[in-house]
Amino acid sequence: MANQINLSFDEMWEKIIVCDRKYDGLFFTAVKTTKIYCRPSCRSRKPKKINVEFFFDFHEVEKAGYRPCKRCQPEVEHSPHIGLVKNVIAFLLNHYKQKLVLQDIANHVGVSSFYLERVFKQETAETPRTYLEKIRVDKAAYLLDKTMLTNLEICYDVGFQSPSNFYRVFRRLKNCSPNEYRALKEKELRS
After folding, report:
1. Catalytic annotation on 176?
2. What is the pTM of this model?
3. N or C terminus: fewer CB in 10 A for the chain?
4. Mean pLDDT value across residues 34-62
5. Strand 36-38's sheet: what is its strand order?
6. Which residues belong to CATH 1.10.10.60 in the chain?
7. 121 within 8 A of 127, measured Cβ to Cβ
């Protein structure tokens, strides 16, 4: 599939645990024991991690013998613009480390930057830039929790161009600094 995203199993698992709507349509959670698949944002009871597999296309998951969840209806696309939005989100997820401007994204999906920003905001309630910032902060939080990289290494690894912007955006989205976030995760691990 052309829009397959680069997320690890653990990253996708974290997205379904917090019911993250940003990833709806980009991947599907299939539960081996029930043979049901869901959107990442589904509010149904969460399965055991060992019983889960992920698919990037609903045709693939149905071909594998899974049926759609009746609660979140993952097979139903709710908007005529959902294909464009999915394409943009997949592009952002696959290129978040690069310096991106709106025109780069618009060129990739083949629409004007004005149209892209208007439709994207209408569908997601965010601009492509704020969405990209959320992706970068999610990746940074994952690295803070799972690695011993320094904050500066993480800042540049996830695509921020300056440490001050990284700290400002991280604090705005997570309500704490990267150091506070790492300390909180270490405290949770010890508990």
Report:
1. no
2. 0.68
3. C
4. 90
5. 52-55, 28-31, 36-38, 67-68
6. 79-191
7. yes
